[in-house]
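Possible race condition, two jobs.
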Amino acid sequence: MADSQGGIQAVVWDFDQTLADTRHRNLNVTTRIVEHLTGKPGHGFPELADVNVYFDALNRVDSWADFYMEAFDMDRDTVSKAGSCWTEFQLNDPTPVVFYEGIRKALAHFAHLPHGIVSLNSRAPIEKNLEAAGIKNHFQSIIGHEEVPAGRQKPNPDGLLTCLERLIGMAPGQVLFIGDHDMDVACATNANQTLAENGHRLKVFSAAAAYGATKPLSLTPDYHVHSPDDLLHIAESLDSAML
């Protein structure tokens, strides 16, 4: 358990639908990958009809790999090829990524803290998007899917724990982990279990980003965030808490 000595030590973010609305780019990239691997036009797949249909279909399954297998009838080898294509196709896609209103204000408020990103997206396009938005300097550690073994992605805590080690060396205190999905809430829970088992006086608090395009959660986070402005008040409550 964390103690009051450290206070809030770091802020860790998911990327897609937490820092930025990436649905349109991800739909376009998915369409290009599917066409590339299947040789079929994207409009022939109902799940690629528009961004809302795509996002709803993606959220009905546990992982992007399951989505590719079910929606596009891919076997595991082809899904693995799709994963290998993701970074290249993301980097070459011109679709704008829009950062949510209030994100810059929240980053400025937390400028005295180290920030990290733990995402199922690729590191290179994340960095490119942050650079284009002029906010890359806020983030000291970015963990993309390629840095975590396939079987240990979120909700397993490996990526989050690696990020925390890089940011603060597991110093005592509290960390705020902001994400839009059940897997982010579960990742925080799993990280806390591992931290406690290893004797670290560090606790991760989960904050669910409800301001983006996301499905209702079935798990209960420590905090619900209806606007990035809510993060300012959450940080104040963490700093004043005696844990």
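Job #2 (started ~2 s after job #1):
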Amino acid sequence: MSAPLAPEEGRVLLTLARRAIARKLRQPVGELPELPFRLREALGVFVTLRRRADGELRGCIGYVEPRFPLAEGVAHAARAAAFEDSRFEPVRPDELDGLVIDVSVLGAPEPIAPDQVQVGVHGLILRHQGRTGLLLPQVPVEQGWDRIAFLEYACRKAGLPPGTWRQPEAQLLGFSAQVFEEEQASTRQGREGTSDE
């Protein structure tokens, strides 16, 4: 990502995410917002759905690699988070108003040493023996993990034994995220990955 997106660009992404889910549920969607030029840039993105009542995760899907222009990627990820996250039943029409949507726009993943990982700044991707685990940067903050716990949970996310991140052949990548939250319609750097959370 060349420069951070503006809050108003984030609001458009949040509108696109909610619109994509509503459309799939055959609910009214209103006008398509005008797309700022920056939202046509291909970037990695994740969409996270939480229940408004208790903050519980309801779905999280995304793309680490910039597979689509950002606006299109948000729509794909929102539908996938709502209807294809294997951890949850598909979102029902009566649930949509009770969901809060976050959009995380990802920076490019780069190799990172375990001692360089900063909680609240980096998301992690751990790859080893054909398995991959991904956690968004906000996850350890929300869970109260320190750096070691964050690394251990990346192993767990990949279905790998504890301490795998210490193996020389394990590949550890870090990335940043700019997170737009529907509740605040604002942005925060780096605190929040299936490709799920």
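The first strand starts at residue 44 and ends at 51.
Logs attached separately.
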